[in-house]
């Protein structure tokens, strides 16, 4: 049966903290920040931690990885220190796919030592190769006068390249010392040339072959030049599967010197015999064997501590990668190994051992938390039976205790991951409110100690948390950002802990300072409470409905005990104040309330305000005698508890009943590319910018099923239909002296090409919008093949210097979306995650519910113990046991259904 799946790879990465950074430079204070690069492309930048060798970032990212991803690098840089090569790089950590595959699904948290790095690699571009592993049959062996089977051969066809850096763009070019006849309208381009060889492990002899040189271009085309490499037979009559193809691209200067453009490494074991595979391969920097070896050692150490082996056994090794020629270029082919094409990978790693130990000693380290996932995700229809089982858990209270979700709780390895997946799936099905209602109702009914209601890490608690993060972030920003901005700007001292005041002050001075500081703290807390109290209308209706339902269930559960009626408020404030607002104050950068981390004084103020908010969320109750210094604001807290109760009453005053229905029949997928937010739009008129300098204005953007719209003060200012979008690409920073820009090119029968230029605030936001725009646009048969990475300014393009504003682009575009047949939605990915949980836990479920010999008739057992006559107590016990038996039987039935579902999916994706 043919497989039809998309390989999905992602990594959850937490950049925690650093230690001893900058020590090798002899600097007691550095301003460190980190960037994350996948292959050669920057995808994430942390905030800067100022004046410290021991920074704390605490930033978490979920990074989707392209199919051809080869390495993920974390660079640590000093923002305010520069040398001749640019910003000083304090060191780097390199994670490669091979090592992460061996720990797939495991969470690893470890200090990773930094390795030396002189600069951040800036290699970019892609190379299209067609590869064919071939056997030529029998030929004559003239040296021995007999026939034998000839060696295998690999035929490499070099087709074209795109996205290469020009000499002007590449800061590594030799400062203008080289002659530059390779110029297009005054701009130095490149003379690309490809060299390649095949190397077998343990052999030193190499046969290098070289392509022709393409002049004056960043999009060279070699007209399908092909090269043949013979592969010697091994002792078993086959070709040696350690053979690796090394491809290097260089720019040939006019004085004979060369500029490195990038390299590609392809293990030939990934090829099938007599099958041609054409794909785009990303170019990579020269590999740093020292960094690879050090990072691998750190990972191995972490795994040893966790009881996980790093080596991949033959039975657990990943399947050979399947190439897809219909996928997006950055996700077309697998490259899992890398190295200098003149040197064996193994030799390089072994020879770097001593260097790594001595070089890393003073580099410092960064604490990372990593979880890597790689799966073969099927089209959504393959998960319909699993989806039906999950939705069936909402068919009444009994179904929730015996259905698929209940069994998922028995086997899940990570509550947060499962909760996130469930919320995404049920949001898509427009059933998230019934899901949360059902989970919460079950927990409220089963609670033994009311004071601990929703205070643990149950699936219900985690699900409500994830629901708030997915639906209420805009509400959070609208409510809290103004107050957070004022705390950052005003920097009023709010310290009320005597132990944290300056040393050496007398008691009177301390008391006076605490009085002033507590007044400042009350001021900020009052502003925050004002903002929250007036935010009812801004809160999403679905959130208000969930909170209303929580209140109703608490009132039902404790209607006979007035001592616990206050829980109707605590059940709401526990989620909104303690699990949402307070964490956002403690980590404003993570929650989008600030572009930078706060300094120490500001962070302390935010912590104290968060403590007050937590006490208000607990309706003024403080745990024991902890933090007695907070008594300075006790009066403020007591006086404002009534305001919190009033706010919650208004928040949950939602009209209309909440329907507990199952809409599984209405299997409608929501548009996964929906997004809204603010971007900076370049002001243009008739295709050129207004004014001598580029001007950007803030606009609100919204993506829906049919169009991208942007607004000025609530009024629509522009709209671009999905069918008109022909290209979406990044923009060179030099084009408009602005980083993190995106261009959307649109065209229709009535108008020539129109280009919308927008700028994001950072690289993280840029990549989020780029992905959303491309998903929104889908596949357009009129998509452009070329684009200009620069802008048209001063009567010429900044990239290629052409003067015609309508000139064809000088760089090749990336297809907007992959083949729609193989395109999977976010719901498919989440369903696959739950499938893996069930598949891994199925043996446990079968053992618990299908192989349980204790499922006998309770009444017979009870009767036999009482001489054939049931006493009242025995009858009651029998009834309880019978009820438990019915639950077990229903769970057993669900397990049997899951067995069928798991087996059906496994035949397409293989065993987990």
TrEMBL record:
Residues 672-778 form the PH domain. Keywords: GTPase activation, Metal-binding, Repeat, Zinc, Zinc-finger. GO terms for molecular function: GTPase activator activity; zinc ion binding. The keyword Repeat applies. InterPro entries: C2_dom, C2_domain_sf, PH-like_dom_sf, PH_domain, Ras_GTPase, RasGAP_CS, RasGAP_dom, Rho_GTPase_activation_prot. SUPFAM superfamilies: C2 domain (Calcium/lipid-binding domain, CaLB), GTPase activation domain, GAP, PH domain-like. The keyword Zinc-finger applies. GO terms for biological process: intracellular signal transduction. Residues 1-112, 135-281 form the C2 domain. Gene3D superfamilies: C2 domain, GTPase Activation - p120gap, domain 1, Pleckstrin-homology domain (PH domain)/Phosphotyrosine-binding domain (PTB). Residues 414-618 form the Ras-GAP domain. CDD domains: RasGAP_GAP1_like. Pfam families: BTK (PF00779), C2 (PF00168), RasGAP (PF00616). This is Ras GTPase-activating protein 3. It comes from Capsaspora owczarzaki (strain ATCC 30864).
């Amino acid at each position: 049966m043919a497989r039809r799946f998309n390989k999905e790879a992602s990594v959850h990465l937490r950049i925690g903290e650093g230690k001893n950074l900058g020590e090798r430079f002899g600097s007691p204070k550095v301003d460190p920040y980190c960037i994350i690069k996948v292959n050669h492309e920057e995808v994430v930048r942390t905030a800067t931690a100022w004046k410290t060798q021991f920074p704390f970032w605490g930033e978490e990212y979920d990074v989707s990885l392209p199919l051809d991803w080869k390495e993920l690098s974390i660079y640590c840089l000093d923002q305010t220190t520069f040398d001749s090569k640019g910003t000083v790089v304090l060191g780097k950590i390199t994670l490669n796919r091979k090592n992460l595959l061996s720990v797939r699904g495991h969470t690893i948290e470890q200090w990773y030592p930094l390795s030396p790095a002189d600069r951040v690699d800036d290699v970019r571009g892609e190379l299209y190769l067609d590869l064919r592993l071939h056997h030529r049959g029998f030929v004559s062996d003239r040296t021995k006068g007999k026939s034998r089977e000839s060696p295998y051969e690999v035929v490499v066809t070099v087709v074209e390249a795109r996205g290469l850096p020009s000499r002007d763009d590449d800061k590594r070019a030799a400062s203008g010392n080289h002659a530059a006849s390779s110029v297009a309208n005054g701009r130095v381009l490149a003379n690309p040339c490809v060299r390649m060889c095949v190397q077998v492990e343990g052999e030193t002899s190499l046969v290098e072959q070289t392509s022709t040189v393409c002049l004056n271009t960043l999009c060279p085309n070699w007209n399908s030049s092909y090269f043949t490499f013979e592969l010697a037979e091994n002792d078993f009559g086959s070709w040696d599967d350690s053979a690796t193809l090394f491809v290097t691209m260089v720019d040939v200067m006019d004085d004979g010197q060369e500029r490195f453009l990038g390299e590609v490494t392809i293990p030939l074991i990934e090829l099938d015999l007599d099958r041609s595979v054409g794909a785009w391969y990303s170019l990579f920097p020269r590999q740093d064997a020292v960094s690879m070896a050090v990072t691998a050692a750190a990972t191995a150490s972490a795994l040893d501590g966790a009881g996980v082996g790093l080596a991949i056994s033959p039975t657990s090794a990943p399947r050979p990668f399947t190439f897809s020629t219909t996928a997006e270029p950055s996700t077309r082919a697998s490259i899992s190994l890398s190295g200098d094409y003149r040197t064996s990978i193994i030799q390089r790693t072994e020879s770097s051992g001593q260097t790594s130990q001595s070089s890393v000693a003073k580099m410092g380290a960064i604490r990372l938390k990593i979880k890597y996932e790689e799966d073969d995700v099927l089209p959504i229809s393959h998960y319909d039976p699993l989806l039906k089982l999950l939705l069936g858990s909402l068919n009444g209270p009994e179904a929730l205790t015996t259905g698929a979700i209940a069994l998922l709780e028995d086997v899940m390895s990570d509550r947060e991951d499962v909760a996130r997946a469930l919320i995404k799936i049920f949001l898509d099905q427009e059933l998230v409110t019934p899901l949360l209602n059902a989970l919460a109702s079950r927990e409220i009914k089963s609670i033994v100690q009311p004071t601990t209601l929703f205070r643990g890490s149950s699936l219900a608690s985690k699900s409500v948390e994830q629901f708030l993060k997915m639906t209420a972030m805009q509400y959070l920003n609208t409510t809290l950002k103004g107050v957070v901005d004022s705390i950052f700007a005003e920097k009023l001292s709010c310290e009320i802990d005597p132990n944290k005041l300056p040393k050496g002050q007398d008691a009177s001075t301390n008391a006076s300072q605490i009085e002033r500081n507590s007044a400042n703290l009350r001021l900020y807390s009052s502003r925050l409470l004002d903002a929250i109290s007036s935010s009812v209308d801004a809160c999403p209706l679905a959130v208000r409905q969930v909170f209303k339902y929580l209140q109703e269930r608490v009132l039902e559960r404790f209607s006979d005990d007035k001592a616990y009626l206050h829980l109707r408020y605590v059940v709401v404030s526990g989620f909104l104040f303690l699990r949402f607002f307070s964490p956002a104050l403690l980590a404003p950068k993570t929650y989008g309330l600030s572009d930078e981390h706060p300094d120490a004084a500001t962070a302390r103020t935010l912590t104290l305000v968060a403590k007050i908010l937590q006490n208000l969320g607990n309706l003024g109750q403080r745990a024991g005698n902890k933090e007695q210094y907070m008594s300075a604001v006790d009066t403020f807290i007591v006086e404002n508890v009534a305001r919190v109760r009033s706010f919650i009453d208004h928040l949950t005053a939602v009209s209309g009943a909440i329907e507990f229905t199952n809409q599984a029949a209405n299997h409608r997928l929501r548009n996964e590319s929906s997004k809204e937010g603010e971007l900076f739009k370049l002001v243009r008129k008739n295709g050129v910018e207004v004014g001598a300098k580029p001007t950007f204005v803030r606009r609100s953007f919204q993506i829906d099923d049919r169009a991208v719209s942007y607004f000025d003060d609530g009024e629509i200012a522009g709209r671009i239909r999905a069918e008109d979008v022909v290209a979406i690409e990044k923009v060179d920073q030099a084009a408009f002296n602005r980083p993190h820009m995106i261009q959307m090119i649109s065209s229709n029968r009535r108008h020539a090409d129109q280009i919308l230029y927008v700028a994001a605030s950072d690289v993280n936001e840029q990549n989020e919008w780029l992905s959303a725009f491309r998903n929104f646009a889908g596949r357009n048969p009129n998509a452009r093949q070329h684009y200009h990475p620069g802008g048209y300014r001063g009567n010429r393009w900044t990239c290629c210097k052409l003067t015609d504003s309508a000139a064809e682009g000088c760089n090749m575009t990336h297809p907007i979306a992959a083949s729609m047949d193989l395109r999977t939605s976010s719901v498919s990915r989440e369903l696959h995650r739950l499938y893996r949980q069930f598949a891994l836990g199925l043996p446990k479920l079968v053992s618990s519910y299908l192989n349980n010999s204790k499922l006998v008739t309770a009444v017979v057992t009870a009767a036999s113990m009482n001489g054939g006559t049931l006493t009242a107590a025995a009858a009651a016990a029998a009834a309880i046991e019978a009820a438990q038996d019915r639950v077990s039987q229903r769970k057993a039935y669900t397990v049997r259904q899951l067995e069928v579902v798991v087996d059906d999916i496994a035949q397409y994706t293989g065993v987990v």
